[in-house]
Amino acid sequence: MKFRGLGLGLMLAAIAVGSLFSGARAEDAPAQTKVTFVQEWPVADGFWIPWILGKQKGFYAAEGIDLDIVAPPTVADTMKFLGTGAADVAFTTVMDIVFAKDQGAPVKAIGRYGRGNNWGIIGKEGTALTVEGLKGKTVGIYNDAWTKAQLSLMLKSAKLTTDDVTMVAAADDTVPLLLQGKVDVITGITNAEGTEMVTAGKQTPSFMPAIEHGVPNTPIFMLAGNEAWLAKNPDLAKRFLKATQKSMEYAIAHPDEGPAAFAAAYSKAYDPVFINQQWKDTIPQFGKAGYDLLVLDDADWAALLAAVKDLGLVKETLPAAQYYTNDFITKGGN
């Protein structure tokens, strides 16, 4: 789904430095309770900037939280960590939550990261993109169910199917396929593959938003919690989200401080050009940083679950309330 080209050595370095920041001074902060926060990918990326910066600024410490930012060994381990209770909360994808629930995992979305779905079709600068024009083309994709499902929905809007295109799966990054001319277009998001097209490809890519062609506008990334932990620690969960919202609002309002905090925490896994551009590309996804920044939208989830059911991606869809809750978001952001 996103640029992941930093390698195994840097992955280990990122895991090792995940707890560098001490936050607020001990004498200024209340008693601290450790909260283990597992991430969506083994290598640090710019999406983590709000909580990296918030930890540095002491926002979590002020809420009595000793935040432990943990990189999983592999991408498949995020939901394993959360479902087994090895992590209390997670930064993950909406479909990881849906698939985990399909397997009976005790996980639930508790907040959103961004206000919509910024996935779509990406082409080289100047490329005219239409769904109809994809017929007969080669499309660089990631080999996961939701990528194929979103592509199927887009093609369906023009009465096409995946049989009308040639899909070329990338191991971890579709952008090189496009830059090297091995495919005509790729799938991706504006603040990952789109970012890499700018930083590595030195161009402004063409972009065709999936939401304009039959794909639900549900945000891709989510904050999630272990259900047993949430039930046992409702106040702590609220304080975690309160500190996270404050961190996000601060990071949005002070865009230069985020990459600097990232550099301090993950210097060995740091591509300054990419991280700076990625955060610049991510900020617009939050829209206005108001009280509803984290609030999960019922209509978004209804559209997503309807699409999931229609495409047969899970054995059965559950009632919406089993996937997400806004119960831990402090009303008014206070």
Any chance you could write out the topology, listing elements then pairs?
Layout: H1 7-16, E1 33-38, H2 49-57, H3 59-62, E2 65-70, H4 77-84, E3 89-93, H5 94-102, E4 107-113, E5 119-123, E6 138-142, H6 145-156, E7 166-170, H7 175-179, E8 185-189, H8 193-199, E9 206-209, E10 221-226, H9 227-232, H10 234-253, H11 257-265, H12 272-282, H13 298-311
Parallel strand pairs: 1-2, 1-3, 6-7, 6-8
Antiparallel strand pairs: 3-10, 4-10, 5-8, 5-9
Helix pairs in contact: 2-10, 2-11, 8-12, 11-12
Strand order of the largest sheet: 2-1-3-10-4
- The low-pLDDT segments are 2-24
Query: Quick one: CATH class of the largest domain?
Result: Alpha Beta
Query: Which fold name is given in CATH as the topology of the largest domain?
Result: D-Maltodextrin-Binding Protein, domain 2
Structural class: alpha/beta
Which sheet architecture does the biggest sheet show? 5 strands, mixed
Mean pLDDT: 90
Beginning-to-end CA distance, first to last residue: 34 Å
Total count of domains:
2
CATH superfamily of the largest domain: Periplasmic binding protein-like II
CATH architecture of the largest domain: 3-Layer(aba) Sandwich
Helix content: 25-40%
SSE series: HEHHEHEHEEEHEHEHEEHHHHH
Figure out the total of helices.
13
Determine the strand fraction and express it as a percent band. 15-25%
Our Rg estimate from Cα atoms comes to 19 Å
Shape: globular
Number of strands: 10
